[in-house]
Amino acid sequence: MAASTGGLVSSFHGSWGTSMVGDDYHALMQSVPRYVTVGKPVRSAPCMKNVNEGKGIFAPVVVVTRNIVGKKRFNQLRGKAIALHSQVITEFCKSIGADGKQRQGLIRLAKKNGERLGFLA
């Protein structure tokens, strides 16, 4: 090894060609499948459950009310309440001169607070 050449030094003295020739190579190629079937990936259904389910001070009242009036009717009532609350926030933003971005921020904050308090249980 001469350090003055500055080249790459390797201990490899073989050939880059195949070391298998003739019948061995053909036997190996016959034993390997040409196509591999790949199944469709299994994907679980998205979970739309509230992470704060059962948490919050109002959660027990919300759960009991949902059980009494039924899930469908309860979701209708909840939707109306959320829509009314969004309208109140919108009117408030108009009265103080807040722009749309601030209004959206207040609506998101209301949703987070509702989750923490248990209204969305």
From TrEMBL:
<dbReference type="GO" id="GO:0009644">
    <property type="term" value="P:response to high light intensity"/>
</dbReference>
<protein>
    <submittedName>
        <fullName>Proton gradient regulation 5</fullName>
    </submittedName>
</protein>
<dbReference type="GO" id="GO:0009773">
    <property type="term" value="P:photosynthetic electron transport in photosystem I"/>
</dbReference>
<dbReference type="GO" id="GO:0009055">
    <property type="term" value="F:electron transfer activity"/>
</dbReference>
<dbReference type="GO" id="GO:0009507">
    <property type="term" value="C:chloroplast"/>
</dbReference>
<dbReference type="InterPro" id="IPR037497">
    <property type="entry name" value="PGR5"/>
</dbReference>
